[in-house]
Amino acid sequence: MTKSESSAAESSRARSSAMEPLTVRISTAVQLTGISRSRLYELIQSGDLETVKVGRTTLIPYKSLKTLTGV
């Protein structure tokens, strides 16, 4: 891989990670992972899935979903 190809690959990775959301709602997490809503709440309750509360809204950090799914 040439230096310019390496730089282009790094730039592409930086852009794709910059476009990832910081957090997602439970309904979005269900769609992204294919894990049922009930199972997500079980994972949250057991501490296997991190959450952030904003008012009454429960948000899941995107990085936590990626860790859970191994992506």
Verbal overview:
- The structure is a single chain.
- The protein has 71 residues and is α+β, with helices and mostly antiparallel strands.
- The chain has one domain.
- The protein has 4 helices and 3 strands, in the order H-E-H-H-E-E-H.
- The chain has a 3-stranded antiparallel sheet with strand order 1-3-2.
- The longest helix is centred in the first third of the chain and has 16 residues.
- It is globular and about 35 Å long.
- It starts with a helix and ends with a helix.
- Pfam families: HTH_17.
- This is Helix-turn-helix domain-containing protein.
- InterPro entries: HTH_17, SinI_DNA-bd.
- It comes from Edaphosphingomonas haloaromaticamans.
- GO terms for molecular function: DNA binding.
Overall residue-averaged pLDDT value: 85
Number of strands: 3
| SSE class | alpha+beta
Overall helicity? 55-70%
Helix count? 4
Distance between the termini: 25 Å
Main sheet specs: 3 strands, antiparallel
Uncertain regions spanning at least 5 consecutive residues:
none
Protein name: Helix-turn-helix domain-containing protein
InterPro entries: HTH_17, SinI_DNA-bd
Pfam family, one: HTH_17
GO molecular function: DNA binding
List the helices and strands and how they pair.
Layout: H1 3-18, E1 23-25, H2 26-33, H3 37-46, E2 52-54, E3 57-61, H4 62-69
Antiparallel strand pairs: 1-3, 2-3
Domain Helix-turn-helix: 27-66
Pfam family, one: HTH_17
GO molecular function: DNA binding
